[in-house]
Fold this sequence. Notes:
Blueprint: H1 20-30, H2 40-53, E1 58-59, H3 60-67, H4 71-83, E2 87-90, E3 93-96, H5 101-142
Antiparallel strand pairs: 1-3, 2-3
Helix pairs in contact: 3-4
Amino acid sequence: xxxxxxxxxxxxxxxxxxxASALTDWFFDSFDLSGKGDDQEREMFKELINNTLKGIxxxxxxxxxxxxxxxxxxxxxxNKFIGSGLIQRKGRKYYLRAGDLxxxxxxxxxxxxxxxxxxMQFATKLDxxxxxxxxxxxEKRTGRK
Length: 145
């Protein structure tokens, strides 16, 4: 069974300055991906976006060399990105989930809507079961149906 994604979306005020750096920070904060305050994981994410837009994937070893980061840190961050649903691994290479960031977010949105619809069905059924249980208890106490 594949590992479940944990998609966290926080409401964060959008920056007034629309630079790649400011928007990346906002994006990371919105998806609760911010780590210890260093910029390495943001740079890694930008590198993954750039390479995906070029149609090429990136290995963890390449990222480690390009960003001068320990391989263990790169793999840790990549796994965090995979767990958030933003990045996927194909063979030894890592890519954005879709061909660009906008398409990636659209895919995540569609998945979340589908999951919420499934949860709504569950909630409706659970409400019915609990209501039946409550009425069943009342009927037993009062002797009425």
